[in-house]
């Protein structure tokens, strides 16, 4: 599946191509399931943090399948092995929206026993993202309060589960009440409806005026100043998405220069660092084994309906992951 022009979901087109043979450090996989992510919709519309460099362009960074062939110098995976592809590469170079795809072998993780293809395409990006931001970067501790918006996304749900596992208190922010009950079911200690409530005031009330040690912002834009008010002294505001598509001001001066740490974050900090990825994979795998972590799949689409899958993604009505399956 490629796009030959920049645009909406309708520009996605199924092309018949020879996948070729893997080169040094690469592997070819038979793709069984594909995880659909916001980054791909942004890349397709040329609004991602990395611009589209050439057309037609491939798409997709997360999948599950079986290794068919490996290039020279590849260790750690073998032909016939069930694996997951994690986002660790540029979509200008590789893409997994396909029946077969060549990817860097460094982007492959062996699928744990009992994890099927759909789960293997739905679990890694959300939990690697949440682990990296909250544990590796943020150093979340038991007793901390973690506030997150876009909470019904796959990453938002993984962040809720990760906070619970760390002994922290997850506070979910959602625009309307439609998803509040589901967020509570998934483990949110509190749900703040941003269309009806003052987010910062509610966070301060919930924490006895202290604020949250971590605030995870997937939306960015003008609202970042309001979220900055909700951060505890010495706490961290992590910008890990820009769903608003609007300019994001620096809030420190408007807030009176509090002891506020602000940083950007993407999952590539984890997936492109071998040692960090090893730790993250161990953390997620142990959560899967104990049942603390699980893939939350909103809907399945066949590959031939990838356009509809992207339309559903952009509707923002989903709870959890959208997964595309590849029929044989």
TrEMBL record:
Annotated spans, Disordered: 1-26
Coiled-coil features, chain-numbered ranges: none
Domain (Enoyl reductase (ER)) ranges: 7-324
Domain of life: Bacteria
Biased composition (Basic and acidic residues): 1-16
Sorted UniProt keywords: NADP, Oxidoreductase
Pfam family, one: ADH_N
Protein name: NADPH:quinone reductase
């Amino acid at each position: 599946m490629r796009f030959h022009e920049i645009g909406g979901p309708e520009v996605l087109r199924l092309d018949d191509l020879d996948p070729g043979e893997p080169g040094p450090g690469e592997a070819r996989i038979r793709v069984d399931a594909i995880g659909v992510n916001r980054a791909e919709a942004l890349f397709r519309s040329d609004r991602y943090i990395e611009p589209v460099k050439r057309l037609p362009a491939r798409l997709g960074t997360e999948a599950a399948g079986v290794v068919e062939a490996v290039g020279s110098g590849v260790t750690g995976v073998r032909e016939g092995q069930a694996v997951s592809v994690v986002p660790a590469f540029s979509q200008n170079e590789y893409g997994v929206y396909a029946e077969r795809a060549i990817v860097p072998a460094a982007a492959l993780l062996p699928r744990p026993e009992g994890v099927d293809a759909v789960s293997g395409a739905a679990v890694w990006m959300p939990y690697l993202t949440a682990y990296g931001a909250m544990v590796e970067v943020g150093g979340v501790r038991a007793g901390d309060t973690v506030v997150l918006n876009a909470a019904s996304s796959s990453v938002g749900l993984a962040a809720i589960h990760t906070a619970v596992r760390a002994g922290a208190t997850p506070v979910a922010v959602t625009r309307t009440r439609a998803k509040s009950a589901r967020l509570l079911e998934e483990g949110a200690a509190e749900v703040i409806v941003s269309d009806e409530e003052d987010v910062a005031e509610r966070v301060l009330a919930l924490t006895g005026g202290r604020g949250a040690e971590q605030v995870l912002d997937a939306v960015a834009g003008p609202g970042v100043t309001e979220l900055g008010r909700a951060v505890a002294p010495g706490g961290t505001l992590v910008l890990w998405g820009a769903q608003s598509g609007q300019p994001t001001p620096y809030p420190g001066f408007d807030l009176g220069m509090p002891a506020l740490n602000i940083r950007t974050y993407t999952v590539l900090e984890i997936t492109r660092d071998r040692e960090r990825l090893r730790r993250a994979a161990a953390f997620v795998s142990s959560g899967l084994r104990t049942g603390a972590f699980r893939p939350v799949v909103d809907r399945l689409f066949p590959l031939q309906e990838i356009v509809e899958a992207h339309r559903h993604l952009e509707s923002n009505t989903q709870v959890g992951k959208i997964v595309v399956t590849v029929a044989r």
